[in-house]
Prior knowledge:
Two copies of one chain form a homodimer. Chain A is an alpha/beta fold. The first copy, chain A, folds into two domains: 7-291, Succinyl-CoA synthetase domains (Rossmann fold, 3-Layer(aba) Sandwich), CATH 3.40.50; 296-463, 3-Layer(aba) Sandwich (Rossmann fold), CATH 3.40.50.261. Chain A has helices spanning 30-36, 81-90, 108-121, 165-174, 196-204, 222-232, 247-257, 264-273, 282-294, 310-322, 332-341, 360-368, 384-392, 397-401, 404-410, 424-434, 444-463; strands at 15-18, 43-46, 52-53, 56-59, 71-74, 95-98, 127-129, 135-138, 143-144, 158-162, 182-187, 211-216, 238-242, 277-278, 303-307, 352-353, 375-379, 416-418, 439-440. Chain A has a seven-stranded mixed sheet, with helices on both faces. The first copy, chain A, has a seven-stranded mixed sheet with strand order 9-8-11-10-12-13-14, sandwiched between helices. The mean pLDDT of chain A is 93. At the A-B interface, helix 4, helix 7, helix 10, helix 13 and helix 16 of A face helix 4, helix 7, helix 10, helix 13 and helix 16 of B.
Amino acid sequence: MDRSLPHVFFKPGTVAVVGASKKARFGSSIPGLLLRHGYQNNLYLVNPREKEINGLPVYTRLLDIPAPIDLVIILVPAPQAPSVIAECIEKNVPAVVLESAGFSEVSSEGALLEEEIRTLLQGTKTRVIGPNCLGVINTHESFSTTEVNLENLRPGNIGIIAQSGTFGNILVDWAPTQGLFFSKLVTIGNRLDVDETDCLLYLADDDKTDVIVLYIEGVKNGRRFYEATREVSRNKPILIFKSGRSPAGRKAAASHTGSLTGEDELYEALFRQSGVIRATSFQELFDIARVFSHEPTMAGPRVCVVTVSGSLGVMAADACTECGLELPDLSPKTVSTLREIAPAWMNVKNPLDVGPSGTFAAALKAVVTDPQINGVIAIPILPEVIMSHITELGIDIRSMYGDPEELRILSPNKPIVLYTLGGPKWIETIHKTYGQTFSLVSSLENAARALSASFWYRKLSMQR
Amino acid sequence: MDRSLPHVFFKPGTVAVVGASKKARFGSSIPGLLLRHGYQNNLYLVNPREKEINGLPVYTRLLDIPAPIDLVIILVPAPQAPSVIAECIEKNVPAVVLESAGFSEVSSEGALLEEEIRTLLQGTKTRVIGPNCLGVINTHESFSTTEVNLENLRPGNIGIIAQSGTFGNILVDWAPTQGLFFSKLVTIGNRLDVDETDCLLYLADDDKTDVIVLYIEGVKNGRRFYEATREVSRNKPILIFKSGRSPAGRKAAASHTGSLTGEDELYEALFRQSGVIRATSFQELFDIARVFSHEPTMAGPRVCVVTVSGSLGVMAADACTECGLELPDLSPKTVSTLREIAPAWMNVKNPLDVGPSGTFAAALKAVVTDPQINGVIAIPILPEVIMSHITELGIDIRSMYGDPEELRILSPNKPIVLYTLGGPKWIETIHKTYGQTFSLVSSLENAARALSASFWYRKLSMQR
């Protein structure tokens, strides 16, 4: 039987909410959210103690609904969940999001409830995401099974699989402020049925998703996950941040989502062999995701650092070296081009520290077309006191630091990663001017790790 | 002869600017800055090609000024610097900031200029900061030798020594946006005379400075630095981020400030033995600085993580373990207090994941007074969609996540470090509510490293 994740999880024709409530509590605003996003005529609510919610009639039981249902969202307390799932099966519901907590993450009684549901599901076509999760968000269709401001979510090309609901929801608030945009997000919780591999295989075939990002505390079926990631990583980069690495983290993961995390060394080997890119923190995870979602992959290990601050240039050189990247000499042509316009005090080397010479744009243009260079870390810097003079003079930032569109056209096959530091006006200007085109990352270490991952992934792809 | 750094570097009675200019170029707004900050009657400008600048008369030579000068700021091109320094010596000027670039960081001719100046200084009382630097900022006296918005600089207790001028200036823009506030900042550049050890010894005796932070690319005199840091670290924490660790970074540092960086292993040993705390990135440097500047040191290795997001709790547990910290069980009293108010699905463990139970404030109160716990990482989280409901209901964030003043009074001797993630409104709220009292750090890894450094520093202090 085909157990692949049905499309209706992400764009159901009809939705039922079991445990809909008038009181302000977990999940109570989901019906309102669905009504505002296209489900005026296809939403059904279930609660034996209510007659009407949000202007809709409320059914006593799921089986009372006089229409087929694609997706059921379950919000009832854990002990009532098995009987609701039984009704879903009876009604041939293909997709269920069980959001309630209180299962294996809390007690052995809770684990028994999961086991009971798993038994019910055997031999059926019903798939269940959860429990202890918030289900799915599909930005391209403005569909969500959880309370988020869908209006704020600009569709993107990063697909996210996260273990926990709260974390998933916070990512949804945080990511747009970082210029990160999602295609789909799934929080899988305790994974009594649907697991990370099911979601990965779904996103692998999803044409709105170019990069797959996972935050997990453990893998449910190591062999199946390995085979899936090995296959999928040929076509789409897979980035993983796995926590529960330490004994204290493992204990915490068990309490959090009932995850058995296993030894970290095994995961390390599994990820390496299957072509998965592993991040060491979640900021790094999303900085790497940003670079993969915006930039071409890097054809070689040779990076040029173009900077206004010598100190940040030295830091970038350290970070690149520590990731196995190289900072080669610039080609003679680049050196002579820049020597012509550079003041005497400026070193035309790599890192290329232009200081206050005003040659940043020319330097960037020269290095992105330098055949010695496979990728660039650009560090534009401008003290706000100088920025205010420049703004008064009507000078455009693009003329000082380079026109992003022009640079892309000049060099479509090299990744360009930006890092900056400064006051609030400068940061806002850089985000507006470059944030849409280039990958603005949150640290120099992450800039280097992202380029290193890009090169590693490309090299691996060439080998297979 | 006493070669310690004279106080007049940070609060001169009279200042001369040699190379003052009417044209908009490097340093040209320094006279205006000084006039706005108390030097209406004590500022002298020197430039043989000008008669008047900013309404002040301009002298042809430094020696023409009919008053003693405490501090001279030199902006002339490198080749002219030695003759200006000779005039400073003749005029018995105690403090000189040589901001010009074009010395040993560029060429052997530049290195010879430095050597020439060093010879001139022998046996004199004149001290020179630079070249290739921006000198000093003293926030408590609103004094600066470089163009910054002094109005934005709230005085603080962190003293900064940085190698490079641009980087120092950018820190000044960036730090207030991170809730970091400086006492004094010195950028030392090529260090032809004044070096990091001179500045360190000055800040050691400065009663406005509680924490000393260094960004360096190399140490000039290893033995002297070792002896100074060993002594000073008994009384004030010294935090260092050193770049130029890799071969590429070392080459870059030589081009940047003419620094010979040396083998990194030697520095590692030097820092450890002298009680210096070493950061591995500059974000980490400033997160640790923040914790030392706000928090009491930590008496033991036992941390409790209080969180709304289970995932972030697991990440924090990993980060703590990887830094040598422990997550002990909570004491029976704390468990019973919390069990009374916690819903059935909530695990009363460490990490203490309160989820959406609404018990964060009570949990924090219980753990800060738990004798098992030496320090706390608190992770308040609130999705913006829920935040807007709460704001409508008029609920105060302090009642949900704890009153910072109350927590400080309850437990004055335990560090409390905050980390959060979310949308822009939430981040702003957290900064306003907790940013002044607690240490809001930029990652969970840095939260753990800061607490680990705090414990290490305290243990070391007890041993000596």
